[in-house]
Amino acid sequence: MEVILAEHAGFCFGVQRAVDTVYEKIRSRGKDEPPIYTFGSIIHNEEVVSDLQRRGVNVLSSLAEAEQIPKEGRGTVIIRSHGVERSVFERLKELGYQVTDATCPFVKRIHDIVERESAAGKSIVIVGDQGHPEVEATRGWSHTKTYIIGSLEEAEKFMPGEGEELYIVSQTTFNYKKFQDVVEILLKKGYNVGVVNTVCNATEVRQTEAGELAARADVMIVIGGNHSSNTRKLYEICRQECEATYHIRTLDDLHLQLPETVRLVGITAGASTPNNIIEEVQNYVRINF
Known about the structure:
The chain is α/β, with parallel strands linked by helices. It is built from eleven helices and twelve strands. The strands form three sheets. Strands 1-12-10-11 form a four-stranded parallel β-sheet, with helices on both faces. The chain has a four-stranded parallel β-sheet with strand order 3-2-4-5, sandwiched between helices. α5 packs parallel to α6 and α9 (about 200-215) runs parallel beside α10.
């Protein structure tokens, strides 16, 4: 039986940069310095977040929580790869925190686009998942009304105000094909639309590669956190090509009973999945089947 690991699996550039930033802050922190915080989980991976907590990094889940920390305990706050709203940046600085921005540069580019285009009077359409932290952060940089469209059905039903000029961006980890389809629907409706494809190139490559591998595989394993949007999208793409697709968080979740007819097992992983977890799963499958 052959086991193939997708070439582009695991940490993407933005996630690796954010995680490295936190570990570097841990190494350089003085003994008597205030604690280190991340604003929200630095990435959507439970194992990484747990390791950081063991090393003394605390998670601030909201501004209200940040405000409750005594002034002498307000140390460094690291902004996660998903970014945050402009108002969050400003408030954290007002509270006296040292803010380190680990927002993915590709996400930051979207914030700049949204800020510029909304300042020109355009309403912003974000193609992405309602409630996702990256989407919520992006809408927080707009000066005008924002809309979120996460499906073709929502695109079909969408109706902006009369004469409203729109500018469309995408969540970096959104399904690239679905983004194209949403844009096509809005263009066909004849709205006054500007558009820029902000799906991260690494996401597009990862999704294409996963789909192609799944089309060849008898069994497909997708590794990633339960709250990872890009991992869920990889699972959906692979499931369309390979019915026997499994989404697992770690090796502990893998309960495979492979028939002798299985000749190829494919493995891919979300952008928040550490290499050690991927290697553990890959080695286990190769040794035991």
